[in-house]
Known about the structure:
Helices cover 67% and strands 6% of the residues. The chain has 268 residues and is mainly alpha-helical. The strands form three sheets. A two-stranded antiparallel sheet has the order 1-2. It has a two-stranded antiparallel ribbon with strand order 3-4. A hairpin with a 2-residue loop joins strand 1 and strand 2. The protein starts with a strand and ends with a helix. It contains twelve helices and six strands. Helix 2 (42-66) runs antiparallel to helix 4 (89-106), helix 5 (111-129) runs antiparallel to helix 9 (172-193) and helix 10 runs antiparallel to helix 11. The protein has helices spanning 15-37, 42-66, 69-74, 89-106, 111-129, 131-136, 146-150, 156-161, 172-193, 200-217, 231-248, 254-267; strands spanning 4-8, 11-14, 163-164, 167-168, 225-226, 229-230.
Amino acid sequence: MNPIALSLGPIKIYWYSIIILLAIITGSAVLFKQAKQQNIKEEIITNLIFYGVLWGILGARIYYVLFNLNYYIKNPIEIVEIYNGGLAIHGGIIAGAIFFIYYSRKNKINFLKMFDIAAPALILGQAIGRWGNFINQEAHGPEVLKQTLENLPIPDFVIKGMKINGTYYHPTFYYESVWNFLGFILLIVLRKKLNLKTGQLTGIYFVWYSIARFLIESLRTDSLMLGPIKVAQVVSVILFLLGLYLILRKKKDTRTNRNKERDDINEN
């Protein structure tokens, strides 16, 4: 499978870059629509997308490089070659979340409200971005029989693309992409149908994504490792627990508490 989409002399345009750009554009369109429904100014979202994407890509790359530091110390020029793959979504989420907190406070918007708005766009972008792994024939699972893949609801072109050097592999990128597409639909439906509290949609996103990532990571053959531990599984557990907290937490009614304090003062 040729990773280069177009060659213009010395300039090469890679499919991976095109797919990531498509993910950003599609996610941005969803984000603008969600923000409009919440009466967030378009200017705020435009700046959020521009700087959020930069921070997300930077964080995803730094995260990946740090867990492959021995290799990149020997091959430093490859650190900037992100068109060859090597973007760790957990790094992007962490860096993006830090920027979201800063940007939300700067614009005096509740951080969790902002993340609730962005969650559907983010998981849709992840679903699309995973197809970059397909083109690069990376982020796959262990060897598997072709018949096993044919017995699963996997398109023929994906099965053919998973034949690498004569051997078939589990298309773990495909499993995660489908799960994320379903997650996108779930988040949109829940937002419309339920009266969710601030932060709950973010919690559902964390729980939904983390369940699949933890299980799929057990199949991955190229996981980022910390000794014998798969880092993505550890982060998935942390995000899952954080998601549960956001879903189940009880928001304090500060107005009620103030009234109660006022009544106590009057009684005394």
